């Protein structure tokens, strides 16, 4: 089905010639959801990209131009975005954070032979030649939270509450289950995407002898779960993943979110490098609020693409992709990333409207 979509797009775009980009411009294509259920994360990522572009508008003696495509929180739109942006002459892409969306885009990116940098946490992308992941992936997130749950929170009976239709949550839950020691009891409760009441799920959870819940779902659905848990199981520790950093998590859950733990990609007080501090101050000055991980991912993706182009001495897609594959270390807003070293995963705890940094867990690659 994906290949059929790509073929149709190729036939469609073949009817009109690709846009000729001025020789004194580098085009960076950005495809993110700017509205719909995942719009807040996409808008934050674009904020980070825009800030980076304003601070670094030129590379290789050329003006860097952003070309933006709104995927509208529709998974299939990612493949469309790749075809349209590359047809407009994009030298490189900054791709969406969505696991399913990037897996849809993957064949189109390979067909276009253009480098794409992404905040997607899908481990399926790790060895793709054309795709470079900026963020901590699902395996690393789940390893970190499993370690924190057992060693720091002292949990021994944990329920995994899993979205039956979302690959993102399934990846995280699977890894979490297989990373905890054998003396930790794991229980599983499934729900359907878009659930808001969780009556049946809460009834099942109340029958289990649990002291913790790990629910790596999207921000809105997880917030509804926490609202239900607060009333029925207020003393159970609740843990999640990176999407809980979105503002809608607190806006829906409100006080029920208080004290929830979740993994993130960025934490100001965990990343003491100069690039991170520069990013934080610049973001606050421009937008009047502190950045989220998604903004830091967008900021780093843009700068990493330009670093690779300048190191290669060329903005040709193949040259940039090759340079990205050889990259061993990057000093950015997310901290200092070492491709071969252990991954540092920040753990945040919800206090009021925002998550606050509590600890960093190091996990092997």
TrEMBL record:
Family (UniProt): Belongs to the leucine-binding protein family.
Protein's name in the database: Leucine-specific-binding protein
InterPro entries in alphabetical order: BCAA_transport (IPR051010), Leu-bd (IPR028081), Peripla_BP_I (IPR028082)
Signal peptide: 1-18
Keyword terms of this UniProt record: Signal
Coiled coil: none
Domain spans labelled Leucine-binding protein: 25-343
Domain of life of the native organism: Bacteria
């Amino acid at each position: 089905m994906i290949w059929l979509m790509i073929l149709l797009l190729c036939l469609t775009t073949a009817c009109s010639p690709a846009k000729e980009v001025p020789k004194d411009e580098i085009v960076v294509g950005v495809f993110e959801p700017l509205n719909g259920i995942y719009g807040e994360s996409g808008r934050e990522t674009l904020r980070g990209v825009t800030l980076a572009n304003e601070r670094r508008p030129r590379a290789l003696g050329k003006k860097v131009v952003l070309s933006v495509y709104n995927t509208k929180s529709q998974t299939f739109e990612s493949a469309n975005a790749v075809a349209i942006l590359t047809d407009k002459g994009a030298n490189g892409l900054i791709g969406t954070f969505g696991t399913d969306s990037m897996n849809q885009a993957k064949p189109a990116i390979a067909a276009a032979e253009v480098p794409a940098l992404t905040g997607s946490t899908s481990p399926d992308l790790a060895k793709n030649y054309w795709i470079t992941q900026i963020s901590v992936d699902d395996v690393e997130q789940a390893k970190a939270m499993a370690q924190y749950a057992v060693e720091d929170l002292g949990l021994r009976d944990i329920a995994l509450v899993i979205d039956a239709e979302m690959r993102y949550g399934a990846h995280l839950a699977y890894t979490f289950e297989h990373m905890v020691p054998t003396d930790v009891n794991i229980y599983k409760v499934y729900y359907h995407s878009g659930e808001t009441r969780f009556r049946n799920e809460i009834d099942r959870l109340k029958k289990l002898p649990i002291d913790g819940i790990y629910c790596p779902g999207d921000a809105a659905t997880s917030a509804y779960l926490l609202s239900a848990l607060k009333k029925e199981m207020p003393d159970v520790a609740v843990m999640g993943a990176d999407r809980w950093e979105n503002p809608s998590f607190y806006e829906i859950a409100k006080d029920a979110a208080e004290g929830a733990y979740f993994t993130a990609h960025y934490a100001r007080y965990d990343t003491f490098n100069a690039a991170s501090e520069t990013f934080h101050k610049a973001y606050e000055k421009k937008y009047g609020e502190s950045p989220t991980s998604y903004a830091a991912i967008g900021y780093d993706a843009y700068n990493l693409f330009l670093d690779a182009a300048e190191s290669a001495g060329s903005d040709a897609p193949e040259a940039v992709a090759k340079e990205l594959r050889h990259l061993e270390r990057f000093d950015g807003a997310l901290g200092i990333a070492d491709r071969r070293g252990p991954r540092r995963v920040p753990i945040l705890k919800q206090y009021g409207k925002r998550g606050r940094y509590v600890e960093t867990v190091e996990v092997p690659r």
